[in-house]
Amino acid sequence: MKRLANIYRLGVKELRSLYRDPVLLFFIIWVFSGGIYTVATATTQELNNAPIAVVDEDQSQLSTRIIHAFYGPYFKTPELITLDAIDPGMDAGLYTFVLDIPPDFERDLLAGQQPTIQVNVDATMMTQAFIGSSYIQNIVTGEINEFMQAYRAETTLPIGLAVRTKFNPNLTSTWFGSVMEVINNITMLAIVLTGAAVIREREHGTLEHLLVMPLTSFEIMTAKIWAMSLVVLAAAALSLQFMVQGLLAVPIAGSVTLFLCGAVLHLFATASMGVFLGTIARSMPQFGLLMILIIMPLQMLSGGVTPRESMPELVQNIMLAAPTTHFVSFAQAILYRGAGFEVVWPRFLALIVIGTIFFLAALAFFRKSLNTAQM
């Protein structure tokens, strides 16, 4: 009971220290409010107002129909340019797509030949380039088919293909971006806050005060973990309630309570990583550099940015040792697909094992650091 009381009092001390740090407080509030809103609304993965230009060398009825088939919100109004303006325009970034309709295109098509339309794509804008190329192909093909049939009619296919989009019927990127940003911010803040708590003790000289008290390294480290994890968990819960479900109107399919229970296990692992990094780093700038080396691979290779199935098998196997891989997996299953405990319990178990290993490793290194400081 005495040990638990020490852990509780030390944790309260950490919360008071955080309360007196306006920079970190502002950082926490922004990350789970304005940061999520900005990522969800400003970084859309959909084609929207893509700049497009057309070189109409045919000047025919069909070429006119093709030009007028491009309209908002996917494309801006096509700009008619000359052939020698293609390269300067794309070099300057004025157009993402440029269509070159060759001379006698309509005549060759009616004669049964197979003329081609050149589509120039600025692939530096990867998302718009990939999606927009498919849109352009479908639009041009549709206009040509209708022109050749001389009337607009639906083509009767020999089979009926029924597409049902589950979990995100409108394919709205905001639904994905906002929830994934909450997931990523939980990982980032758990490491930042616990690491900063260790460095703050060293920079303020209070670490020596703790060493002369009847406290163990286990109590000191556990207090930092539970205090900072509680802050991150509360901020994430409020963000899901008021930002994601409230302001952004993103529906949550599963149990938020179950997700937060899993987040506690994830925070146990990542907060231990934060203590480990805070013990290695001697200052906040060093800690920031270490964060870049750790947080980027954790977030990019965990399956939150790109599917794990598209990664090399070696990377998939290595990332099974990372807590973020299991966290992203069960978070998506619960929040997107409404999965229950019977589905996600293997991920919970994996996080318990990984978190225990990380905690013991961080505790050993933290104890060694304290022993060195006492000498």
UniProtKB/TrEMBL annotation:
Q: What's one GO-annotated cellular component? A: plasma membrane
Location in or out of the cell: Cell membrane
Its placement in the membrane is given as:
Multi-pass membrane protein
Which InterPro entries does this UniProt record tie to the protein?
ABC-2_transporter_component (IPR051449), ABC2_TM (IPR013525), ABC2_TM_bact-type (IPR047817)
Q: Name one GO molecular function term.
A: ABC-type transporter activity
- The superkingdom of the source organism is Bacteria
Asked whether the UniProt record includes Transport among its keywords, one would answer yes
- Keywords, A to Z? Cell membrane, Membrane, Transmembrane, Transmembrane helix, Transport
Task: Answer whether the UniProt record assigns the keyword Transport to this protein.
Answer: yes
Give the residue spans that cross the bilayer: 21-40, 175-199, 220-244, 256-280, 348-366
Domain ABC transmembrane type-2: from-to ranges: 133-369
A family per Pfam: ABC2_membrane_3
- Can you tell me which family this protein belongs to? Belongs to the ABC-2 integral membrane protein family.
Task: Report what the protein is called.
Answer: ABC-2 type transport system permease protein
Gene source species:
Desulfuromusa kysingii
Question: In the record, what lineage is assigned to the organism producing the protein?
Answer: Bacteria, Pseudomonadati, Thermodesulfobacteriota, Desulfuromonadia, Desulfuromonadales
